[in-house]
Amino acid sequence: MSYSFDWSSIPGALPYLWHGARITLEITALAILVGIVWGTVLAVMRLSGHALLAAFAALYVNLFRSVPLLMVILWFFLIVPAALRALFGEGMPDIRLTSAFVAFSLFEAAYYAEIMRAGIQSVPKGQLSSALALGLTRGQAMRLVVLPQAFRNMTPLLLTQAIILFQDTSLVYVIGLADFFGAAYKVGDRDGRIVELLMFAGAAYFVVCFAASLAVRRLHSRVASP
Amino acid sequence: MISIRNVSKWYGSFRVLTGCSTEVRKGEVVVVCGPSGSGKSTLIKCVNALEPFQEGEILVDGVSVGDTKTDLPKLRARVGMVFQHFELFPHMTVAQNLTLAQVKVLGRSPQAALEKGVKLLERVGLLAHRDKYPGQLSGGQQQRVAIARALSMDPIAMLFDEPTSALDPEMINEVLDVMVELAEEGMTMMVVTHEMGFARKVADRVIFMDGGTIVEDAHKDAFFAAPQSDRARLFLSKILHH
Ligand SMILES: Nc1ncnc2c1ncn2[C@@H]1O[C@H](COP(=O)(O)OP(=O)(O)O)[C@@H](O)[C@H]1O
Ligand SMILES: [Mg+2]
After folding, report:
1. Considering only Cβ atoms within 10 Å of each terminal Cβ, which end of chain A, N or C, has fewer?
2. Which residues form the domain of A88?
3. Domain CATH for A25
4. What is the value of pTM for the model shown?
5. Distance from Cα B237 to the centre of ligand 2, integer Å
6. Residue A95 located in a structural domain
7. In what order do the strands lie in the sheet with B205-210?
8. ipTM of model over 0.95
């Protein structure tokens, strides 16, 4: 018995799938933005030489890196609503998206922190010295001289992490959020065409990630050679 | 201008500097030499507090460097420093390298800073390179930009840490020429270098360091005519005949 493919349910479902894709992209974009900013703050804290700040950052990073993302998503789904309810009372809008934003941002920050830490350490020590020697404060030297170079050196790794993040967003299915993957699954389930829909979704993820990693590789060779 | 009084410094239990004392008066050029690892870089970095020290006192224009109440960025802005490996900011153009601290530290307007930067670039003969990145310049050119960058802050004194050691031989003179000119204009300078030609030409005094101590601190003529210590004599004969 051979399976006969039927792709007919896809065209009609495109608006719904696009809505899911937008959720995927929103979570990815926000988690990249917040993750890099907060991760950079954590990396700077960790290298600050301030015992308390460094210990906090180390604990944060190690904690988030030792628990599965799936658990973090579920965890924030259970915590964020309670927190928001305490703030705004009953009758809040859809909480799943917000809790996913928070979970991904905080989780990704731990990974970005490690990348940025390596990035900061890749900048020769003399750069900080010469910035300080010109009279810049430590904060200015970091912001204007060290971090821009750290970013540039780490751009390929930051983007690679972003690609992983993009794929990981599909995990929001555990809280019933219809991201691109979730939407495809729902459509397939509804029409009894799960195989087709998952193949379609898989192809879409592949195209995006493959194109992005090609771009990263080209960038990498640009960064590597002066 | 720079008073170093009985300064000692440790890295953990390792003593890098032992009771170093010297004085650089206004307009004076003092050359610091000595074997590798003798503490020259460490001493010069103590002057603008890039390295902390545990004992003694350093005064720059009357301001105590080691005092916890001293505004270090403000003090450092008044003392120019030139490094062995140039340390230009590679993500900025030459012009941006020259204006950054003027704007951020001295609060000059971008236009005023650029005007000043252009003047200094002209002076070191690199105006044509103002929009290039440091990576596009030769070592000698980068070091001249670094000197111009330090001068853009109108420093009261300049510190040099082996400014020509990382350069190809044919580029050493273009940097030394700029430094000689600076010395002749009366800049107060403390220069770690093994370029004894430079020392003979413009130094007022020569300091010889070994093992973290100042072994000799003499007028240039006295130093070159007859170093007092065996170690300085040996060092001189080595670097003059290699
Ligand atoms: N960050 C550091 N930690 C420990 N030891 C250091 C450090 N920096 C320099 N030293 C040691 O201090 C001594 C003096 O170094 P330095 O001032 O760089 O010498 P010089 O500039 O005369 O070659 C050397 O023995 C060096 O190994
Ligand atoms: Mg040195």
Report:
1. N
2. 14-224
3. 1.10.3720.10
4. 0.89
5. 20
6. yes
7. B79-82, B157-161, B189-192, B29-33, B205-210, B213-219
8. no
